[in-house]
Write a structure and sequence with these properties.
single chain; alpha/beta; 6 strands; 44% helix
């Protein structure tokens, strides 16, 4: 049974195209200026590092280049989301229709996250908001963030759906959660998507049906795992470790097709 859905924000729930263009331009210009290289070279470095780094966030790229993640945090704060984001009833409808706990997990500075959610009219749609605190570590850089979320809501990874638009930053398949990719991740190759994405959708509007589908698949797997086995030698017990596939009786995520 799915008990929790964890959402990324930009390009997952919301898609403020013009704001994202400004972020990209800021990122490229800052790297070019700090390293004394051309804009094209800066773009190449970003693309290469986002593919190579285990967690390919922009702040991780800034650290890898020796610029420092705090520089990127300050640059992001130059953008006011309220100029680009408007309420979207369809997104609010998606969130309202998913009747489990919901968490927003974003790499945005907390101040900016709150402004964007308020402008979009979905500030009150979540049970927990996790953003980048000033002076703190980016929340997507450590599995400890996810572990603290699991503990706070009393859930196991296999009871959680992660939803995002980038595989390496939003979808920690290695932790055992179900993963839903929204759109096409330009930094993930086909093999990575095959291994780390359970379902890929082209619109967040399809998510409620996907969460329901995952729940049905879990129930089916669980039913199959506890069916009686005929022909077993007398006195031989089933292998509970294999049946349970983890810390409980809920099956681990398996590959689904949209």
């Amino acid at each position: 049974m799915i008990k929790l859905v964890v959402f990324d924000l930009d390009e997952t729930l919301l898609n403020p195209v013009e704001m994202y263009k400004i972020y990209v331009a800021l990122r490229t210009a800052t790297i070019a200026a700090r390293l004394g290289i051309s804009l094209d070279k800066a773009r190449e470095k970003v693309a290469g590092l986002k593919r190579e780094l285990p967690i390919g966030t922009t702040e991780a790229v800034f650290d890898a280049l020796g610029i420092g993640k705090e520089v990127w945090r300050e640059k992001m704060l130059e953008v006011d989301p309220r100029k680009f984001v408007e309420p979207d009833p369809s997104v609010k409808g998606v969130l309202d229709s998913i009747n489990v706990s919901k968490v927003l997990l974003t790499g945005l500075p907390v101040e900016q996250m709150l402004e964007e959610l308020e402008a979009a009219g979905i500030l009150d749609s979540f049970d927990l908001l996790v953003g980048w605190e000033k002076g703190g570590e980016p929340p997507k850089h450590s599995s400890k963030t996810w572990e603290s979320i699991f503990a706070r809501f009393g859930v196991r990874p296999q009871e959680v759906v992660a939803v995002g638009n980038e595989v390496s930053t939003d979808l920690p398949k290695e932790l055992g959660v179900w993963t839903v990719l929204v759109g096409n991740d330009p930094f993930a190759d086909a093999d990575t998507i095959r291994k780390k994405v359970d379902i890929q959708i082209d619109s967040i509007l399809k998510l409620p049906a996907v969460v329901e589908k995952i729940g049905q698949m879990q129930e089916q797997q669980h039913a199959e795992s506890i069916e009686p086995s005929f022909g077993r030698a007398k006195g031989v017990q089933p292998n509970l470790l294999n049946l349970r596939r983890g810390n409980g009786t809920i099956p681990q995520p398996s590959k689904l097709k949209e």
